[in-house]
Specification:
The protein has 73 residues and is mainly β. The protein is 0% helix and 48% strand. Strand 4 and strand 5 form a beta hairpin. The radius of gyration is 16 Å and the shape is flat.
């Protein structure tokens, strides 16, 4: 577990990040946010990327939020 750099308290990890489109209503309306990380390789002239979902960690004391990705995925 990582500790908050502001108050030295263990942060809550593994928080999912999601978004919602403005004009949609209901439980099916959520959209997912992805990061496309460049791999340095090319395929048919295009840069290849690895697509990962960002996660967040939150400090329960001060509310600081940090984004991170799981490198093993």
């Amino acid at each position: 577990m990582k500790k908050c750099s502001e108050c030295n308290v263990e942060m809550i990890e593994g928080v999912e990040v999601s978004g919602q489109q403005h004009l949609e209503i209901g439980p099916e309306s959520q959209s997912t946010i992805y990061l496309n990380i460049p791999t340095g390789k090319k395929f048919l002239g295009f840069d290849r990327t690895t697509r990962v979902k960002p996660l967040a960690r939150i400090c329960p004391k001060c509310g600081k939020v940090e984004l991170y990705v799981n490198i093993e995925e």
